Amino acid sequence: MTARKDWDTYFMDMAYMASTRSQCSRRHVGAVLVQGKKLLGTAYNGAPMGVPDCSEAGCMLVEEFELVKQDGEEQVVKKQRCIRTIHAEQNLLLFTDREDREGSVVYVTDQPCWTCANMLANSGIVEIVFHRSYPKDSEKVNALMEQRQLKFRQLEHYEPPAGTIAEVRN
User: Fold this and answer.
1) Does some domain include residue 109?
2) What are the strands, taking DSSP E only, across 16-140?
3) Structural domain contains residue 128
4) Residues annotated in the binding site, as ranges?
């Protein structure tokens, strides 16, 4: 008999299953909303409904520049972001009700970007659990979560279900 999965693994598995719906060529991200042990919603990153996605129309990349401090010195860092897709966390918030989110937990395959972290911080949830880190925004997002006193944790020793991992391109 196989061992029963713990709740973190169970819900993160669901987030990875949701990510398999993504057509983004850069990163497949899935998210689930959980209240207690009850699944309230799932989402993945992709273009708006009825609009060609990245696999059909290519990524719509924009370049951004950010001033960061590294080793005590300020440096300009260039970032590329695809703006064709709505992020999984954003879709999750669009397709769930505020009253369902109050006191809930979001499981997401990847650490939220700055914009998604801001939205989640204001959504009524109390915890974000993620698997893969997102170094581009990590420092800012960690500081925000601490300020908002939201539980924010990474499942470092988690193994996603077979067939759910797509190559990540930054």
Assistant:
1) yes
2) 30-35, 38-44, 61-70, 73-82, 105-110, 127-132
3) yes
4) 87, 113, 116
Residue whose pair of structure tokens reads 């008999």 in the numeric block: 1
Tell me the pTM: 0.88
Q: Are strands 38-44 and 61-70 parallel, antiparallel or unpaired?
A: unpaired
Beta strands per DSSP E along the chain: 30-35, 38-44, 61-70, 73-82, 105-110, 127-132, 151-154
Q: What are phi and psi of 73, to 5 degrees?
A: -115, 145
Annotated binding site for Zn(2+): 87, 113, 116
Structural domain count of the chain: 1
Query: Which one from 89, 127, 139, 146 is the annotated catalytic residue?
Result: 89
Catalytic residue check, 99: no
* Residue 113 is assigned to a structural domain of this protein: yes
What pLDDT, on the 0 to 100 scale, is given for residue 170? 55
